[in-house]
Amino acid sequence: MIAAGEVVERPASAAKELIENSIDAGATEIILKIEDFGKKLIEISDNGVGMDKDDALKAFEQHTTSKISQENDLYNIVTLGFRGEALASISSVADSIIIETKSKDIEAVKLNIKNTHREFENSARTDNGTIISISSLFKNVPARLKFLKSDATELKYITTTFTDIALSHLNIRFEMYHNGKLLYRLPNTTSAKDRIFDIYGKNVAESLFNESHFDGKSYQITALFCKPELAKKISTIQYISLNGRAINSKIISVAVQQAYQGFIHKDLKPHYFLFIHMDPSIVDVNVHPRKLEVRFENQDQIFKDIFRLTRNSLENSTKLDTGINREEEIKSSEVRENITNQGSSNFKSNYIYPKNNYSFKEKGQKVNDLVNFQNILNEAPSFNTAYRSTERLNNLATSNLELETNFKPFQVLNTYIVFESKDKVTFIDQHAAAEKILFEKILFGLGDIKTKPMLVPEVVGLKNEDKALILEKADDLKRIGIGVEDFGGKDIQITEVPEELEDLDVRKYIDAILNNNEDFSHLSHVYAGVPLSSELYYLVAITACHGSIRAGQKLSETEMKKIIEDLPGLKNSQSCPHGRPIRWVLNKSDIEKNFKRII
Questions:
Q1: End-to-end alpha-carbon separation of the chain, Å?
Q2: DSSP per residue over 481-521, as a string?
Q3: Phi/psi at 457 (5° precision)
Q4: What are the pLDDT digits (tens) for 67-104?
Q5: Which strands sit side by side in the sheet containing 129-137, from one edge to the other?
Q6: pLDDT digits 0-9 by tens, 124-135
Q7: Looking at residues 241-252, what average pLDDT do you find?
Q8: How many Å apart are CA 205 and CA 210, to the nearest integer?
């Protein structure tokens, strides 16, 4: 009767199931500890109701649960877990599990599980609650271990899972550690915006309008929407919680996106956080093995209500931001208060619903082939392998540009520089060319780049793991000319930049470093005799990208000539650091063939 399936695909899956069990047990404090990105150890400790000896033993039997007892319970689910699959699945793929638990007025229990062997030990635990430690996940299925993604990616899955759950349960204090290092300490709160601040930092929290509310007969919604001007094309946080469970819902996502039409460009996506508290009898969570998807009984009405809530919030909030129509603000507040007073609910829930007001999607894919020096020099090496085709490479010019003495370039579409030379027409991508020129200038000047102190250091707020990642790169950034320091809390500060990059948009630059689409941790490079790690290669590339002339930027003839004249001096003038071609050459014969002058 359940949507059975594999629920433990990666360390994050196991962590999710254990944390949800702790919440169902009524815990108000939950601590997650992992080692080696969850592959060596996953440990959850809580102060929930605990278990007795019989329940501790039964919990690891397949399809055994204390959360439902009959078929009809599937149509009124008020707990996060209910299938009885998770612990049995984890025990089948882990090397060993230790569970230590105590329930009120009952002797503490400690149980060791290894394969099919079960052994009880004496426990000194005196406080109620449970600790479950999973050692060497997937040791019994090495094929699955082999196909996990990079360590950084797996850690991001775990942290995203952890923060998604924490966002839905404000009344619980959460902590998370990796290899003994604290990543998150989230105190219990009554404000979703406070928890968003604790997880995502100041920049995200301040991008959100105040809470919006909808109160109906069978569901209530608390929402936080981002300001239209801060919508992004990628790396948006779109978080939906239903009865304390983070979910994906196309119906809700489309409703919000459509409501934003007219406020943001069609290609951009907003941040938003939606907390829905719904009568469990009108929603089916028994759809997906990992309970990520749900089926609503009245999906058309939900779509309309989400759309109206989003639209009204945007209209009222953007008016308030510009100081328009204060009188309408007061009326809107009165109307909302009347709606709230008239709304009724005929059901109860064990969840504490946030009355004050992400999920990241993993981007990109791992590159499995090595990029060697010859590729970098000769094959227009690509961080996007689509540009490696022979057909595309055949359209590139030879290594030397042939220039007439008095060549006159011109610009088309404010993006491409065009000039004629010796029966050829050459198109230059101005951004790719300027990027590659700056890339080599930085690369060959590493550690000796002239910098300029910032008059006022730029302070950037980050998530804990993102701050740690940037500070780990501080030495490499220093070699590039970027001064990075810890500013305390969740903040870093940029103190200096290369002289040639004095107009660098620091926030976009840091965001680009954090949102690297591909993993190159296993690669190394030698560029024109300069050995550099893949990490340093990427940092130099992204620095050059953000410090260069952009597509769409109007250039003078002098600026265009400077780019063209600098290209022949490059070690590789075929492609930009990311592998896109810099130039495209049309021979006179190609043009004449196209016009049928020659056959």
A1: 70
A2: T-EEEEEETTEEEEEEEEGGGTT--HHHHHHHHHT-SS--T
A3: -55, 140
A4: 666 666 555 555 655 555 777 788 788 888 999 999 88
A5: 117-121, 109-114, 94-102, 129-137, 41-46, 29-35, 173-178, 181-186
A6: 888 899 999 999
A7: 90
A8: 10
